Amino acid sequence: MTAFIIKRLGFAVVTLFAVLSLVFFIVRILPGDPAMVILGDQASAASIAALRQKLGLDQPLLVQYLNFLVGAIRGDWGVSMVSGRPVIGEVLSVLPSTIELTLVSLFLGVILGVPAGVWAAVNRNRIPDVVTRIVSLLGLSAPAFVSGIVLLLIFAIALQWFPVISSGQDTSFSGRLRDLALPAVNLALIMAAYVTRVTRSAMLEVLGQDYVRTARAKGVPAGVVIWRHAMRNCLIPVITVIGLYLGILIGNSVLTEIVFNRPGLGKLIVGALTQRDYTMLQGMIVIYTLIVVLVNLITDLAYGLVDPRVQYR
Amino acid sequence: MMASPVKVSQMADVASAPVLSIKDLTVRFGQYEAVKGISFNVAQGETVALVGESGSGKSVTALSIMRLLPESAFLGGEIHLSGQDMMSLREADLRAMRGGQAGMIFQEPMTSLNPVLTVGFQVSEAFRYHGDYSQSEADAEALRLFERVRIPDGKKRFGQYPHTFSGGMRQRIMIAMALACRPRLLIADEPTTALDVTVQAEILNLLADLQRETNTAVLFITHDMGVVAEVADRVVVMRYGKVVEDRTVEDLFAEPGHDYTRQLLSAVPRLGDMRGENAPRRFGSPTPHTERLGPGNNSGGTSRSKPAALSVERLTTRFPVRGGILGRVNGYVHAVENVSFTVAPNETLSLVGESGCGKSTTGRSILRLVEPTAGAVRFDGQDLLSTSGAALQEARRRIQMIFQDPFGSLDPRQTVGSAIAEPILVHGHRTGAEARDRVAHLMERVGLSAGHASRFPHEFSGGQRQRICIARALALEPSFIIADEAVSALDVSIKAQVIDLLLDLQEEFGLSYLFISHDMAIVERVSHRVAVMLLGRIVEIGPRSAVIENPQHPYTRKLLAAVPIPDPSLRRIKSTGARQVDELKSPIRPLGYTPTPQRFHEVTPGHFVEEI
Asked: Taking CA atoms, which of A114, A194, A277, B119 is between 20 and 30 Å from B196?
């Protein structure tokens, strides 16, 4: 198991290296001179040259690349071309709120989705099944910015239960919870829709297995058959979907953070994109890669917790 | 008799009444009636075999006794278990009956245990829902059961998961589970069908012992007449959802009353039937659409004096076992180790042994479907292991394979005509029209109607599909066929028909067969020569009559002794007390392992036995 983790972390380093290199060269291939972008069309040739020198853009490409790699390893991801502050600091300052949002919505989504999926599977082709299928289809098809706005209209504007802007000003626990409620629910509904569907189909398959028949033939009550005998067996596909969906969740968190005006990676990356903040973009891509690699590792480890047949090698 | 429900408390009074009584049972799935009004009883201490071929409704009957059929099944008639009316019980009361009054063992030990729960948990669970057991009491009871079903190292294995157990051990766990609460009825649905014969013998012994100790009634569902003769007191024969015969096992085997039973019995090969004969013999089963040749010897004698059709020399196939951080090879599965044999033109060599002995890998290595590690395979003057490209393709045209699973080896979305035509077109030489003619001819030859070429595999029965696979194998006019458990998945009567077809084809086209099988009785029927494999090596090889009638190697003897004989007067299952349970050893060896060289001793001309 330890050997497996070390090996996977080794793969992660290789993946990160590849992503870093790819990002570096793509950014250089893109048309447009960053110095000119930062200073604008009107800047003098002298000031552009000065900025190029300051950013290291006048050096040969290979030197820039090596500097970039060494910096990345040492945690120096450069300074934002827009704000002038270190990229790593900017990222780390908003990372916790994105992680908070993602984890809470993941948790809510699983808590809602798994029982709903089981309920639908057990009542296959009856009313509960039809209802869950329609509701989860709605969850799958509504874009995060639409459902977010609907939530805002109802709970923040009409009912005024939650703030319209989840800016994170109120740092007390209840204040943070109020800030988090609507964005988290917004993401959780989409998550729950995915989890419901995969749980339903996995449960239907497991309920047809021989060992479920064995358990029933032993006289095990129906509830125990479902939750103890069948549930763990259908967790593998559920975990797979959760792992895959975390990527989409982070993508949707971009939209959610903008709709609810909440600080986070999403807002940062959109800002960097519109302002052509190359160094910031490089840093963001590294962070996203790191998150995806870690999520995959955790997913693989979770398989082993659920299924004793999984071997780590 | 009044159909008034009997209370469990009154059960002592009705001890003489049958434990299970089925009357006019019907089971319907939509329009399809799977069971059409059957009646029979099972008394205490009695073993009743429910016999029939696939689709006869025997498993559906078993599941309906426990009321375990899906909701789409409509039940009619009466089922009384321990005096309780199973048709009118509510779900909660049914649960008390399941596991409490009747235990059940299923066919597939590989899939019948929950892979994510420990075996100890699964056995002790049986106690927890029947009676007042605490967790530790249930565990202690379960551990005692592990001893009773003779699982070695019970204490250590209690907390392990099913995938670490062999098929036979898993079936013991199933038995422990089914018998946990001392049920009055045990329903065993093909409990030994998926097991090797030596393991089957052990499990049948165990069941017989346990039944004697507890006086349980047993309903034993099987298609194997050999097993019936070994275990049953009474036999109920089912066909198309109806009971065609219900009598004691002695009477049934002595003078079967119904045509179908007679047909079923005549289709069963008995080990020892072929005593004194050298050539294979047809069953003489009526085969649809083919000319009837009637029973008779396969007169086309082999030509052992001519050069061999295929000669395998020191064939070795090993699979690496990897481990550690870098996935380094730290051992090898010695699947096939230094195997040599020859097959003469027009001859059948059977390769027998139990699962994991390497017989299938040998077949695949010959065609290089798995890549052998060393050795030589000479065919048509070439070494197949050193050829490649066109020469290998040509060899693969001349050597064809037939596999066990006629469902899995046909593409469900391809018409059978195009499945048969595909090899013809792939290997070129023919136009579409010529290929169509050839397909029609082949289908007629294997006993199918040429008009069915445009149908899809699901429209055919298992036996018909195996005929299609045979037609496909014949499409390229091969001279050598490797049949890997080609008839193992088929019902007895179908099995006999397909064997007859293979023998006819051998005579007609002068084919040589490498017949890979675990079924000794079938092997005796089809082969000229037999090779016995154990742990990747041949331990005994020779003319069929020599190997089967005069086995020399202890493993060959054990294998032959374990084959159930379809004759109740020769019943050998007897209580042997704590019988030795031996698990097949593993062919996994560490790196750098050099197999000990084998030396053979020639018993009679051509009959070689490994010297131990």
From this structure: B119
